[in-house]
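Human: Cast an eye over this sequence-structure pair and say how the chain folds.
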Amino acid sequence: MIKIVKAVKTLKNNTIFLFETQNINFDKTILITAVFHGEEPQGEYIVNEYLKLDLNGIKNKLLFVPCLNPDGKARGQRQNANGIDLNRNFPTKNWCISNRHEYFGGIAPASEIETRFMIEILENYKIDAALSIHAPFKVVNYDGPAEQLAEKISQLTGYPVKGDIGYPTPGSFGNYIGVERNIPIITLELPEDESNEELWLVNRSVLDYLAYEY
């Protein structure tokens, strides 16, 4: 059984949902998030398809945020309605004010409704690992003690492991929980040249692994 346990309205009156599997006995708690960036909607399709499945008998408790940035998704843009890149808005040690461009992290850390929604999840649950689904690089990026998990996901998907995405990410979710809280986090970058159905066929195995084996 899956239940909505938290919801919040965005600036444009869209709703962000947190779903939770209701298994009483579980080993680990895994947080799975998609659509940090509004122009990367592929992850929401995968999460929503997974939410349709019968997840009775899973080993771990799963938390799902299918779409963190519905305002950005509605506009087809990376940022939220305030023009903030949510993956640069977390209160990390390396957060800094930058010029206003597509990676603008705001005038203060955790200034955004969406960011605070994620922080509250981390305050309310003991998260053992996290999966953040992005696009379009077709790599398995990781932060914190997640190299072994990244290698496993690489085996499942055929996507290469990449410990460094290739450019600075101050205020990122990976820095916030992986580097500073030592929680394994995978940033799963999906290819942009495949259909949602094709991506589902490849990446369902990742969610199955987190649910039943990790």
